[in-house]
Amino acid sequence: MSATRPKIKARPPTRPRLGKIGESVPRSDGTPKVMGEFAYASDLHAADMLWGHTLRSPHAHARIAEIDISQAVGMPGVHAVLTHADVPGRKTYGLEFTDQPVLAIDRVRYFGEPVAVVAAEHPEQARRAAEAIRVVYELLEPVADPERATEMEPLHPDRPTMGHGYRDDPRSNVVRHMVIRHGDPETAGDVTVDGVYEVGSQDQAFLGPESGLAIPDGEGGVDIYVATQWLHVDRDQVAPCLGLTVEQVRVHLAGVGGAFGGREDLSMQIHGALLALHTNRPVKFVYNREESFTGHVHRHPAKIWCEHRATRDGRITCVRMRILLDGGAYASSSTTVTSNAASFALGPYRVDNALIESTSVYTNNPPCGAMRGFGAVQTCFAAEAQMDRLAAELGIDPVELRLLNALAPGDYLPTGQLIDGALPTAEVIRRAAALEPPAPEGFPRDPIRLPGGAGNTTRGAGVHRGVGFAVGFKNICYSEGFDDSCAARVQLYADGSATVHCAATEVGQGVTDVILQVARTELGTDRITLAPHTTATVGSAGSASASRLTWMVSGAVRDACRAALEEQERREGGEVDVERVHHHRPTTPLDPETGQITGERAHVALAVAAMRAVVEVDIDLGLTRVVWVGTAQDVGKAINPQAVHGQIEGGTAQGLGLALMEEIQTRDGRIVNASFTDYLIPTALDMPPVTVVLVEDPEPDAPYGAKGVGEPPAIVSVAAIAAAVRDATGRALTRVPIRADDICL
Amino acid sequence: MEVLTPRSLDDALRLKAELPAARFVQGGTDVLVELNFDRSRPAALINLNEVAELRGFLRENGALVLGSGLTYAELMQPELATALPALAEASRTVGSPQIRNRGTIGGNLGTASPAGDALPPLLVESAQVEIASVRGRRALPLAEFLVGPKRNALEPDELVVSIRISPSGSRQTFMKVGPRNAMVIAVCSLALSVDRERGELRAAFGSAGPVTGLVTAPLDEAERFPAAVAAAASPIDDVRGTAAYRRHALRVLTGRALERCLA
Q1: Number of folded domains in chain B?
Q2: Sheet-wide strand order for A134-139
Q3: Contact A337, A360 (CB under 8 A)
Q4: Taking a contact as any Cβ pair under 8 Å apart, which residues of chain B between 224 and 253 contact chain A?
Q5: Which domains, from first to last, does chain A contain?
Q6: How do A528-530 and A498-501 pair as beta strands?
Q7: What mean pLDDT, rounded, does chain B reach?
Q8: What is the largest CA-CA distance in chain A?
Q9: ipTM exceeding 0.90?
Q10: Are A365 and A666 in contact (CB under 8 A)?
């Protein structure tokens, strides 16, 4: 038998290529992931462990009249069936506002909301026991239309997001309402273009479902191993609900299979810990795919009303925008998304007069929160479509119009903030515009290189080529007075080798190698070990969010390395152990009434990207193929150029998905496409080659000048690809994802 | 759940007669998804992977007899692709290479989804479905085998063993519309053949009615055929597309397919 089986070649022993800052370093998790050897959170195992299962609401909005667990507790293999009554501490949690019940109390507000949890010997026993829990629901009318939410009964009568320094809005179901008033919003122009744009709800669609393992420590505390984005804030949310101190809860990073914002909010953390402490056994959760779609927040669906005014020669005089974001059932990070959408609504353009109104509302739709681009994706799509309309109206080349209005250091954001860091808008526009797309390919050709791809729908009939251009920008690091920090700890040994501790979460973005590259550069050695990412041995690194981690981690590791070297020198050798906390420069909140800065700045720094996209569209069938993407991105300094390219390609793929196919569809709040059969993400055949230009204009305040790179490509690509499809079809296409119907009916 | 692995067709049929609530599984590309999504919990699975009689194909008096265990990857191989070109084209549109290596033509018939990619090309080629049970054998035209959305004419003790086709040798093609360029379930699909011998245009559409539908017309009615196919469909609005789009797309696909096959 063995003779017929091809022998698996032994891998040649590889010496890891060690790199310093600015060198392309192969990802340390790359080979294990490709070989199937990487341990994801769903692979966790502990001796004697039980399996957890969550009973979820089948209704988007209902009152809970009764929960009867009596049948479930007696079922084979079942060790615990817990409801809200068993939550020993605070009954609610949340990333910014504690408005979300650990387990539903008297009401469910979204389809898939957790109602009870079960632990059993076998996952199937846990599932069956959950099915045997009898919940009596009294159905309530769901608030499904965000445009009507402010007229409906309040879903959170206690208004959890009010009284925190935001504008007090008396309307029902408002999460946050903000207005940015800049210059004189009544300023006229020679020409005016207006438009209404819509963005569907995108899912992070990470491949690794929510998974984790909670292990009781035998002394009343618990260790949670979980795929997450922010270890310390998980801990800080979990502990009060368990009635424990933060020291009694230790959160450790387990292998993360993608995040993109969807792991900022908790999933199984409290549930697993509750069951583990209740049963005194380790408890593991692995969500299935359908559950994953309901088990994390999504990108906010948006509707955006725009009016752009300009002079005949193309200078923007005034922009008025109104933004409505559907926050879904719970606040999550909606308040910040609301503000980000407004702050970057104008695009990276010099605009002296503007009125921007941004509102997020509670509904009974799936909760929305953080996702790559964080509010700027939605408004970039609208603002860039407006720029193209303006260019058409004025008869000016779209690239020229953007250059003419390009924002630069010395200019002001609509919030009144002076741009004092690096922002090479004009340069990224010029560099991206200079990239030469490949010449159109003739016919006949293999149908897989035509719109419709493997479906064999055309040999060239109906195929039109289109080119689009867009520019997008957003903030780097947290904003509006949420001044976070990042800790790193370095144990420097007598022989010059070192162990680095940092709780930064490796979510696939490559922060592990950033940490190692900084440490190698600063310590001048390759003999560096990276300790596990955990809350147990080092302070918070903050979240893998807001394109902030490269900046913050670089600063913290650099500072700790330098301090360790100094300390070792002071002591004239020996082993030293130092921890340093890196802070970015401070920010302050925006004025709740005017949206203007209350100090020097609300945002730490900005990053900008420009992109040219070429598509082919079968205009008779409405099918699309993105042929090529060329982009120039402001990265400050590329710590690991190869990883930066990876982030730009990945972000482009995610933006392509939103532009052309990805949307969480709901009917009265219920998700109807919670599977990879019906929620489609781009395949290799949908993804074009990407030509990348890295524009390195060091950020003065950033360690090594480096800016985060993850979000700008996801922001700009949606707008660029949509523009290319408009060019190919001649249609307005004011909504993404663009559906076949929108093109050919 | 029990998994039973018979080693012969007779054993498989006997097991199914004893356990009519059991579910046959061949490639598993439909059945395992159903299990994972908890849409069905059969009492037992009868694994057909060791039943040699279901594999491969043979020629019999000019007819092709395709084992129900033939995979899409096998249907794409030159010998079968030459005889049944539209079926090979349809097979190329199925899933990913991994799915095409596992998924089988018998599974497509067993599931009987209106979106089954193999069904339109089989229908235009007037395929006969050969069915066996411990009670004996019978054959049904495919059009009679497909009785509703995800419903077929199998009795609880029966199994599809093969598909019999007399290849028409006509010009034929298959096209499938999906929202992305690979790995999609059909929003709608079309197989079309121009059968000069019978003087007939034959088109079968998928995902545009409760079952795969067949439309025929005399050769000289090519002009009106796209509208006829669109009119014969009875599509619905669902998560994958709208009825209006499906009807429109069928009209476009039929026009293009005719151009290909009449050229």
Answers
A1: 1
A2: A107-108, A62-68, A134-139
A3: yes
A4: 239-242, 244-245, 248-249, 252-253
A5: 43-140+209-256+263-295 (3.90.1170.50), 485-583 (3.30.365.10)
A6: parallel
A7: 97
A8: 82
A9: yes
A10: yes
